[in-house]
Design goal:
CATH class: Mainly Alpha
Number of helices: 6
Number of strands: 2
CATH architecture: Up-down Bundle
Radius of gyration: 22 Å
Structural class: mainly alpha
Helix content: over 70%
Strand content: under 5%
CATH topology: Four Helix Bundle (Hemerythrin (Met), subunit A)
Distance between the termini: 55 Å
Length: 212
């Protein structure tokens, strides 16, 4: 297994560890240790998301296994995080929010599978990258908001809970817009592919007529 795939596997291993930290079985639940540990772990897992792809391209180690594991790890990480937060911090993360965000991930996975079977790919847009950043901020802030309503640093007051709520709704908005943008790109590509097949079929029938 090459380095990029090893990093992807590390991200997958981090997912159950993240869930364990947020569970009642985590031994250090006082003083904010639980929230800080979960936040740091999720940020590290998110960093590996970009690192494995970068290394695979730079080292020329793009493999079929990596192309399968990388998006799978991303979907599992996002799904696990938001489902866990549904129980961990229900005041901030609502059921409909989880349905929208997780549903979006499965929708895009389905469209990518169809696109792959049709022989084309749709590259990630800037909206998709913004969506990823928004989800990271939303998850981390929602975890921290479980313990703190606000942070006071000198004369500065940081509203942790309201930051989490704003980040969650922003993540929902960007996820929805990026899904629509992806679907439009997918529809244009699939429509173009269908037209090409119809033209090829017409030309094929024309040649057959001439031969006979």
């Amino acid at each position: 297994m090459n380095l990029p795939n090893s990093i992807t596997m590390t991200r997958i291993i981090m997912i159950p560890l993240f869930l364990w930290i947020l569970s009642p079985h985590f031994p250090w639940t006082s003083g904010g240790a639980q929230e800080i540990a979960a936040s740091i772990l999720f940020v590290l897992a998110s960093i590996t998301d970009g690192l494995d792809g970068y290394l695979a391209r730079k080292r020329g180690q793009i493999t079929t296994m990596g192309m399968l594991l990388d998006p799978l790890a991303d979907k599992i990480m996002v799904t696990a995080a938001f489902v866990a937060l549904l129980a961990y911090n229900p005041q901030v993360v609502k059921v409909w929010i989880v349905v929208v965000i997780v549903g979006r991930e499965f929708l895009i996975s389905g469209l990518r599978s169809i696109a792959s079977s049709e022989g084309f790919t749709i590259t990630a847009s800037e909206l998709g990258k913004l969506k990823t950043v928004a989800q990271i901020v939303a998850v981390v802030s929602a975890v921290l908001a479980h313990r703190w309503d606000h942070w006071t640093i000198g004369v500065l007051v940081l509203p942790v809970k309201w930051t989490a709520i704003a980040a969650i709704y922003f993540a929902v908005l960007v996820s929805t817009i990026s899904a629509v943008d992806y679907f439009i790109g997918f529809w244009k590509q699939i429509d173009h592919a269908s037209k090409d097949r119809r033209k090829a079929a017409v030309l094929s029938r024309g040649k057959s007529v001439k031969i006979t």
